[in-house]
Amino acid sequence: MSTTRLLAVGSLAYDDIETPVAAGRGLLGGSLSHFSLAAALAGAAPVLVAVVGEDFQHEHLELLAALPADVSGVARASGSSFRWGGRYGEDFVGRETLFTELGVFADFAPALADEHAACELVFLANIGPSLQARVLDAVRSPRLTAMDTMNLWIDSALADLLAVIRRVDLLFINDEEARQLTGERSLLRAGRALLELGPRYCVLKKGEHGVLLFAGDAVYPCPSYPVHALVDPTGAGDAFAGGVMGHLAREGRWDLDALRRALVTGSAVASFAVEGLGTAGLAARRPADLVRRREDLLRLMAPPLAGG
Fold first, then answer.
1. At 159, is the secondary structure helix, strand, or coil?
2. Is the bond leading into 68 cis (omega within 30 degrees of zero)?
3. Residue 124: which of 153, 82, 94 has the closest Cα?
4. Closest Cα partner for 188 from 180, 178, 200?
5. Residue 308: per-residue pLDDT
6. Residues 197 and 163: beta-carbon distance below 8 Å
7. Contact 295, 237 (CB under 8 A)
């Protein structure tokens, strides 16, 4: 297990999910659930900062602690936990939000203990930009800072979002968000425009079509692992980020070569996430499964050539 400490700040929640092939209510969700399961598979022990309500089950905190993850930064507040409901269309095209109940998350104000502020790696899940900035103000000399975001903040808090992007080393963003934020139709132009906003690296996620890593003038693609039985894509992005950041923490390096290796881990872990409902796909896997899937993905990336 890595000695490089990885801080992750985001949400723990309960989800009601309907997909064309499965459905469930009260599923463990939120960005940090998927992130921490993935990071632990990759060999890290993430430090979690979040808030939950009185209804958040103790067994779910025990599950996270057993990964292991440090849950001492998860505060329990009076009220209900964050809850979200979503329904996917046929062939998983489009997602409808059925309800969003913020509960105690509406008043989330991340506070870092001294030992948490000293973590070398920092991941800011897609919470509000003002909360992300609060965490960046609190951490002490991190070696790498990374963030995710979503359409809501591009629409409602653009100035704050741009200010945070300028302060981080690594931006995770999906193709729809990248086009919305930059106004570019071409993902190559969008990725380069995102680097001009300030981050050293940008990982542009394209769902089943993999990711593009932008670094300086170079672009590095990494494919997704081909999943034959898609069940639930809800946690794929958070799991991908968890795999990437967990790999960097385990390796103890965060240069370009390490990041390119971490992308393979992220893609492999994300493929586990979509094979089960909620967090079930990740929870059913062990590090040996990740080793095998990562090797399979590497073979797909560089297959042997027949002939002369």
1. helix
2. yes
3. 153
4. 178
5. 46
6. no
7. no
The DSSP string of 92-152 is G--EEEEEEE-GGGGG------HHHHT-SEEEE-SS-HHHHHHHHHH--S-SEEEE---HH
Q: Which helix (H) or strand (E) holds 85?
A: strand 82-88
In a 13 Å sphere around the CA of 20, the CA atoms on its Cβ side amount to: 10
Residue for token digits 């945070």? 164
- In this prediction, the residues of the chain whose per-residue pLDDT falls under 70 are 1-2, 303-308
Joined tokens for residue 246: 């967990």
CA distance linking residue 163 with residue 177, whole number of Å:
17
Residue whose token pair is 């999943």: 227
Q: What whole-number distance in Å separates Cα of residue 10 and Cα of residue 22?
A: 26
Q: Enumerate residues 6+ apart whose C-beta is below 8 A from 73.
A: 47, 48, 49, 50, 112, 113, 116
Closest by CA to 154, choosing from 146, 144, 165, 145, is: 165
In 3D space, the residue among 129, 134, 196 whose CA is nearest the CA of residue 159 turns out to be 129
What is the structure's pLDDT at 94? Answer: 86
Compute the distance between CA of residue 238 and CA of residue 11 in angstroms, rounded to an integer: 11
The residue type found at 267 is S
Element (H, E) at 173: strand 170-174
CB 33 within 8 A of CB 235: yes
- Chain position carrying tokens 């025990």: 62
> 105: Cβ–Cβ under 8 A, 6 or more apart, which residues?
11, 13, 51, 81, 82
| 83-97 residue pLDDT tens | 999 999 998 888 999
- H helix runs in the chain, sequence order: 31-41, 58-65, 114-117, 129-138, 151-156, 158-165, 175-182, 187-195, 236-251, 256-273, 280-283, 287-301
Contact call for residues 267 and 259 (beta carbons, < 8 A): no
Q: Where do we find the tokens 């506070």?
A: 111
Q: Rounded to whole angstroms, how far apart are CA atoms 138 and 203?
A: 25
CB neighbours of 142 closer than 8 A, spacing ≥ 6?
7, 119, 120, 121, 122
